Amino acid sequence: MVQADRSSWVTHPWVAEGQRTIRFGVSVLNPGADWSRHREWVQMAEDLGLDSYWAFDHPLGNPDCWTTLTMLAATTKKIRLGSSVSCISYRSPAMLARLAADVDRLSNGRLILGIGIGDFPQEFEQLGIPFQSTRERQQVLEEAIHVVLGLWEATSFSYQGKYFHIHEAQMRAGPVQQPRIPILIAGGGEQVTLRQVASYADVSNFGAHIWAGSAFHVEDIVRKYDVLRVHCEARERPYSSVLRSYMTHPLILAETHTSLQV
Predict the structure, then answer these.
(1) Domain that holds residue 192
(2) pLDDT score of 3
(3) Which pTM does this prediction carry?
(4) What is the pLDDT of residue 6?
(5) Which CATH number goes with the domain that contains 218?
């Protein structure tokens, strides 16, 4: 099992660069089937100086998240690319490690691996995947993180967990980012999710929806960040090494104030 020494946690350079600044990332909720239009939209976001673009992981409702990120990795130059968020149950953690490493290499080190437990029972049913309890999905997430990190970091990796068993796996051509691809864990659960953020993630993300962390008011956000700080202190990890992000919608872009009002 791979366990990072949190007393010597290395803040990811992308996180460090964002300290004391506000950065904006964007998504397209329903990008449709026109790949060219989707690509041009993200290229426009890049030209506008936005920090990141996030692809949703709803395999039947949207084009595949990782196919989308691969396409954008090859057709953009500066903008960060993230999964928002890749449901840990939709792919094996070994395959997720492989996909993330490939997109990171193709983009020359611009990937953010956003992951979560999934919260749509209908989507699990449509994909033919059992919808386990919240606690079980949280455990699956934690084991999957160990597998992903282990495959990225070790020349030969074995793991024996409750949900995943891997024997002497070797993953060639890993990520290019150092010290790792930044990991985002979605959700605002104060007992488990924020503990997992403090233990494994570079980025915390939640928002004003029950499936996004139930952070409806400023007071909710402040409370959750206070909880995250306590979890970080318990692990002797600098609180500043976690990038705190908040998901909101919609964002409306226009070239002029007049066109914005149309």
Answers:
(1) 6-260
(2) 44
(3) 0.92
(4) 44
(5) 3.20.20.30
